[in-house]
Amino acid sequence: MTTAERTVRDIALEQPNSIRVFESFGIDYCCGGRKPLAEACEAGNHSVDEVIAALEAASGAAATTTIDWAQAPLEQLINHIVARHHAYVKAELPRLAVFAQKVVNRHGDTQPHLMVLQHTLAQLDEELTHHLMKEEQVLFPYIGSLSAALALGGSLPESCFGSVAQPIAMMTREHDAAGGLLAEIERLSGHFTPPVGACPTYVGYYAGLREFQQDLHQHIHLENNILFPRAILMEASTVGAQA
Residue 142's closest CA among 87, 78, 82, 73? Predict the structure, then answer.
């Protein structure tokens, strides 16, 4: 349980997702993290009760209703992927890059693997940025047009490719490449295990990498195993309806 007497540092070390809360309130959890939470809140002119409530909410977020995405309308699934997972990638990768630079600045001289880890993360960032753009600007709109065509009995929408299976195959290969980079990140980080006595920034960095991997796994599952196969079947159904 979070109390006002506990130090900010201890909270950050034991509850890595608290770092986002501290960042949002501008509370120093690293260099100045040895202050009790109450003192840190007073220095920043924050209500300690408000901060504690935010920390507890981050620690025990309420469960959400599970949706059967295999049965949900494709438009709903696409909107969920973009709003939940694409938005997460776009927000989280810059945050992790800041952590990576801070940790390299502090520990890079004695822990050279951190620079390799930083480079691998930057490569993942570059690849995913282009990947998401292609999905949002080309593939997803086409799948939405396919769905509308099937519902209205219209003709196949025009595209710059042949079958939807072609861009899907490319996206799947890019998913495999991203998964490989994440596996390398996990290896370099010792399965996201910071050294004993690591500072909260180091701990938060590795916790963020672990969370990012978990989210991307869910993200790729929704696309590879649900969205893409359904889109291919839908295209075949549309072609069959026109035959």
Answer: 78
